[in-house]
Amino acid sequence: MMRRRTTLASCTALALAMGATACGGGEVTAGGGDKALGGQTLTVAGVWSGSEQKNFQKVLDAFGEETGAKVQFVSTGDNVSTVVGSKIEGGNAPDVVMVPQVGVLKQFAKKGWLKPLSKKTEQSVDTNYADVWKKYGSVEGSLYGLYFKAAHKSTVWYSPDALDQAGVKTPKTYKEMLKAGGTVSDSGLAAFSVAGQDGWTLTDWFENIYLSQAGPEKYDKLAAHKIKWTDPSVVEALTTLGKLFKDEQLIAGGRKEALSTDFPGSVEKVFGPEPQAGMVYEGDFVAGVAKDQFGKKIGQDADFFPFPAVDGGKAPVVSGGDAAVALKDGKNQKGAMKLLEYLATPEAAAVWAEAGGFLSPNKKLDLAEYGDDVTRETAKSLVGAGNSVRFDMSDQAPASFGGTKGMGEWKLLQDFLRDPSDPKATAQRLEAAAAKADKG
């Protein structure tokens, strides 16, 4: 890949993070560029596919260019816990896993699968990250996970042309958003493209509504399962979400088609060659798909507004992230630790930031490294929120409840999309599944 220069700010931050002093006007290199891992191979597993996998490979290639290592990425699909467990049992464990859920990270640590991160990486985290990221990467006081990629999951993406043609402005409240959606539908396009085939997108819908409507204290309690899913606040949030799901004209193709639409497909329905909807709710990573797959100019052809406040609450800020962990059974322990040390630097984050569809929780990454103003504003909002953001609730749950395809919250919210007529019954099913996961 093309070698890239870093800004002076990035160079200085990298020197601090890596203990290096050789920034004097030249290029900053991972591992000092000494090819210390020449001839060695590392395997990294994660859920990414498509443009995300392609852009992460650029980061791995940058590491390989400087260290001499060859790094292979293996996509696990959504069931990362099951796939990694099978690979460990089969004696083919990856060296590093990009874990997309806090609950899965905790599960891996409790099973004894993980190695604590090196002191060098932990020092970088202490210096370059808000405390919340260390908290979610730690289990019983030991730091196992480095959050390399963050997500701002309180963004609603839209086609400016679609909203302009309908004569509506970006909404400030949830009620205004549904009203604007009705106007967009009347103009010929459905209001929303919903990725119901991917259950995780439905949990994100619920979490934003719940955080704004019920408030952060209730959110924290529900995330820790200190209140039951049958709590009236849960039923109220499901009722609010159900109003959207019930209105067939608001959803592209109706509920049935939404259940067969995956995340990339939901973005295509708004920004693809044959638009079917004016808006799609999901995180900042929508921009990467819109840009890479459909050639949209972010801020011009594709833009976002913050997920609006619900019923007089505050506008929610829900985040998520992918944490890099090193497996004890990996065949290249030294290489794994070197890779994690590299991923903790601003240089590594800058590679993907330049490619797009990415946010870094690393405070030392120069915002100028992002390729457009919209992404810069999103990154500034997320990093600037510090410890006040709330981490994705389903990602904090045990994997069998909050992070497995065809099970738990993912499946039950898909069932709710299919038939949103009984929020109370759905809450009861969610509670039963959460209690079972806790015991398991």
UniProtKB/TrEMBL annotation:
Residues 1-22 form the signal peptide. Residues 421-440 are annotated as: Disordered. The keyword Ion transport does not apply. Keywords: Signal, Transport. It holds the Pfam family SBP_bac_1. Transmembrane segments: none annotated. Belongs to the bacterial solute-binding protein 1 family. PANTHER family: ARABINOSE-BINDING PROTEIN-RELATED (PTHR43649), OSMOPROTECTIVE COMPOUNDS-BINDING PROTEIN GGTB (PTHR43649:SF29). This is ABC transporter substrate-binding protein. It comes from Streptomyces rectiviolaceus.
